[in-house]
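Hey,
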Amino acid sequence: MQTELLFRTDPTLPRCEASVTAVEGRFVRLDRTVFYPTGGGQPGDIGTFSLDGRTFPVVDTIKGDTPDDVIHLLADEADHPFRVGATITAAIDWPRRQRHMRMHTALHLLCAVIEGDVTGGQIGAERSRLDFNLPSGVLDKDELTARLNELIAAAHPVEQQSITAEELAARPELVRTMSVKPPTHGGCVRLVRIGPAEAPVDLQPCGGTHVANTAEIGRVEVAKIENKGRQNRRVYLVLADG
């Protein structure tokens, strides 16, 4: 089952009208959605569904059998009016999504200032992290913070492009995250580019939501660096405005 993923073309859409295509208990599928499903280290959106003047919490969003199959989880399967064919209003928790977008883009910049394979990561509204495989070298919190905020202040555009799976295979250096499979859609791989095409600050496969310009991130701070093994370094980021 496929859902039109509106966040793919415009991650700033806070709500949409949609038709219910399937209901199983508290699991609801729509023909189109603004809700991002959990994936790539980014949490699924939460928000509300509204119908006939009643509003119901959506407590999580996950992927179904395919990347384009999105399942919305209601808080309670009992006493909700959603039936196949009903037209509803789906609205995300926009402040939470916006923080995820700012954090996600900041983590891409972190990849640009640390040379090393990414072995894991997690995006959160309050704190985010990336794990790096670093055979040698010491990371400095203050230096990383300064370099990140310099890139943010430069107001680099954040755009998406696509290449074929074959083109990606010929450019393995684009894949920074060892633990996440590059996102594919219709035989193509979605890339997120920060900076100009001729000299990008960062360019890598990613299916998540991002701000349109690095200036939208605001100041960030490297809050903590942990040693998680002989070569693994875990770097935590927070938004300076809390």
